[in-house]
Amino acid sequence: MKKIAPALSVLVFFVLVSACSTPAEPATAPVSAVELHPDLRRIVAPANFATDYPDWRSWGVWSSVEEVPGGLDLIYPSGERLRWEILEGPLVRLRHLQVPNAPHLSYAVLEQPKVLSPRIETSERLLMLEAEGLRLEIETSLRVRLFWQGVLVESFSLPERASDSQRFRVRFAGSASANWYGLGMKAWGLRLNGRAYHFWNSDTYGYRRGTDPIYSTVPYALGVQPQFSLGVFLDNPAQSYFFLGTQDNPAWTVGALGNDLDLYLIPDSTPLGVTKSYTRLSGRSELPPLWSLGYQQSRYSYTDHEELMAIAEVLRSNRLPSDVLYLDIDVMDRYRSFTINNDAFPNMKDLLTRLRRMGFKVVTILDPGIAVAPGYHVYDQLKQRGLYIRDARGQPVQAVVWPGVCIFPDFTRPETRGWWGGLYQPLLDLGFAGFWNDMNEPAAFETPIKTLPFESFFDDFGRNSPHALVHNAYGSMMAKASFEGLRTLQPNERVFLLSRAGYAGIQRWAAQWTGDNVANWDHLALNLSMGLNMGLSGVVFQGADVGGYVGTPDPELFTRWMQLGAIFPLYRNHTGKDTEMQEPWNFGDAALAASRQVMEWRYRLLPLFYALFRESTHTGAPPVRPLFWHFGRDVRTYAIEDQVLIGAHLMAAPVLKPGERKRRVYFPANSIWFDWYTAAEYIGGREYEVEAPLNRLPLFVRGGGVVPTGELMQWVGERPRNVHTIRVYPGGSGSSLVYWDDGQTLAYKNGAYLETQLSYSAADRQMRLDWEAKNAPVRFQSPEYVLIRLYNVFKPSRVLVDERPIRIQGDSAGVVESDQTTSWYENDRTLLIKLFNPQRSQIIDISF
Ligand code: MIG
Hints:
By secondary structure, the chain is of the alpha+beta class. The chain has 15 helices and 52 strands. β37 (672-675) and β38 form a beta hairpin. Residues 1-33 and 812-818 have low confidence and may be disordered. Ligand MIG binds at residues 300, 328-329, 365, 438-439, 500, 515-516, 574.
């Protein structure tokens, strides 16, 4: 007979109770007598996940097999099933089903994923499923093997569960263990091998390298080798863990404490292939508003009208290109979400209008804790609608956060999300351009576990589940509520939302930052690795508090952080309550000048970042990526965590150590590189020492590289027409997307954009540029022309655009904007081609 664990009987009980009540009504059943299983009443240290329940049992031999759409079920005597499906990708989904037709319920996966029709063979010894290069063999000896295009990717045993426990695990032999990445927001280096990681969203002010877990959960690991990659996604918002093996000790394990097993294994040839499949499941970020890729200035807090205005004015008077200002919790009346402190901000609407005229958008903050304060509209509505998180007796759970004693919206419930989303209207009316969801782990003060008690119950798809089973989804569901509300209220605007906590799929609703980091050198390097791993986990719009949140950096650290921040998608300077002022002018003239320099670089590079975000909407690829993403055949790249690629061709080697004015840079094998500043050449497969004075972010472009850039603006949209200059570097071949739209509305979804691809190739004394328009813009005025700038070339003898010769003008001092002119600059061996009608495909042939 199947043994029902105590927690399960609580669930069964609640399901029955909620089935009998009307949907809007609270479940007020007296369940205080029911004890939660001990597993659902504690936070387990990662080291103990696998060891403190010695009594693991395999699901074992099945009693029968049944074919189902996409695969087959192993049926056990209790009636439970292990379902193996091959989904579009192709990928494997393995689920434990307590009943045959259990619905697909997930906080991460978009909808019912599409199943393929695998070829299935069954014999005495073996069950085999095969589709599109993926092959799965399940032996009656309980071993399972996964092949991708004939190569063994991984072998593992059938899942196991612990007696008298809600926990389960799956153990893998380790052929995929060469290099592990991902896991969302983890305070560790780039390569994650050799450690256990735990998922339980936690408010970890001042965390350090090794603190685990922290704010956000993405139970998805990416194993990469030259021959194949493997994505592993354990869809479970309860406490879970990944233990990742090393090359020497390769076995790895995933497990969780509560909920049914729902595991995806995604083999593919490249990290990009795996990423496409993973983000087909968990979703991709929409195009952000272009202004949100500009510089963002924040602190806890700019406390009143005058201070915010002053910050704006000093940013502009110092000519520090910038777009966004933040208001932190002091903007609120007694920290109450959706209110404004009218003493400090007597005319918010007027303030936001004035700032907007100066080119600034303002983002404001909201916390999930709602003050218990009759008469406060959000409290009254939450109370009256009964949409709060409940205790075992159905009463609102209370906990202390910034506003004092609070109750908390149950964001797992669709009605709560709908209601919460609508609350944003007055803030939009005031003119706020974006929003920030903080403390949504959810964090709580004065409770032993710094979050709501375990005896809190959530709707959880109508199952009324205890806290432990849904904890990690809370932040994501708050972000979803906010995003969907904003989308409904402003149906044609892009949403900018920043969320601290999240779960797999958070990228659909919000950007993320790495919480309360520390102003020290180790955090500088740490945040870079964290950002790369977040990007590899689908969370492509990410950044860290530039300058550090806890403490104050010295001028050198601040300067290097401004440079590091400039290569992150989210470029936000933020600091805590009792630190020194941290805007770029507080660290002396050299830091100010160096900050301005790198901020200007960032603004010139916005066309590249934007095109990469566009690409990411199609593939899920992170705009900022580790070297192995493109150079995985060079095994040296797998451990490099102090150099990054922005797109396929631009490499940054930020300085991460104090006192360094030169640094060593590794150039991946089988490529050549050019210095961004001097066009000096480097040969791949070697290390060089490069100059890195305090005012320089070392940057390199790959031979054959194509990098879209634009004119410097003080803020996005300062000038309506921004001329793009596309840099092209010789050697090899390459191509890049170049993308234009209005930068802020959803009109691009109806064709109001221009997407083009510039490809470059070279043969003996010939170069060809292929400008390919991918679409015919609808209601969008394309730029009149683009400039294509070729570096390190000889003087051309002839330039043809679509076979028509173009006049070459030699040795001119500056750019000449006359009709179809090509300029040749002898001194720096640069050729500048002005290409008209970019919405038309054109071919440029250059002979030497
Ligand atoms: O308990 O809103 O991580 O960025 O400035 C601290 C105040 C609450 C934590 C966030 C931080 C923010 C701060 N918040």
